[in-house]
# Entry
Amino acid sequence: MAQACKTAILISGSGSNLQAFIDAVDKGAINLELCVVFSNNPDAYGLQRAKKAGIPTACVQHGDFPDRESFDAAVIAELDRFNPELVILAGFMRILTREFVAHFRGKILNIHPALLPSYPGLNTHQRVLDAGDEWHGSTVHFVTEELDAGPRILQGRIAVVPEESAKELEARVQAVEHQIYCVAADWVGSGKVQLRDGKSCSEGRVMLNPIVNKY
Ligand code: GAR
# Structure
């Protein structure tokens, strides 16, 4: 088997997506080596998940820095100690600077709880319910300078159930995330999917649309 792709996972909170990665690596389902779990929040539960799994952790608090640029420079320095080939944003609730994106260009993935380009930003589940949408889901995409707008790779789509609450919808979307994020990250980690000239490419061919898995 090819060398596992050295992967940093960045979190701010619970880290249920991180847990999905830990479990998938344990099972041998994906060829990633989780080299560090980083958080901007020392109380993030995901840090405990990482420690339990024996993965190195690092934490830099954004409140200790005067601006985004100096915080991101510290995060870059921290991550570079581990030489990651892939940087996974898994509920990392910080907006990244251009410098950060340029430093890891083509290597940063994000998961966003909506069918992008619909519903960038926050409170996606409630906004989908308020709009009366039929479909919802989550999107794995490359990170570029523009928030929640980088080239998409894989989406998981579910039907909205009439009368369900935002909490219930969120739980169902998260269950989908735990499946699609590992798959998409493994595609990028293996080189099957790449960012080229600002577009997602699969085996060298431009992906006009993301792959959509229906659940
Ligand atoms: C995930 O649902 C992810 O889509 C969302 O944060 C959650 C983190 O959950 N990300 C964003 O909203 C980014 N814009 P987790 O900590 O349990 O993995």
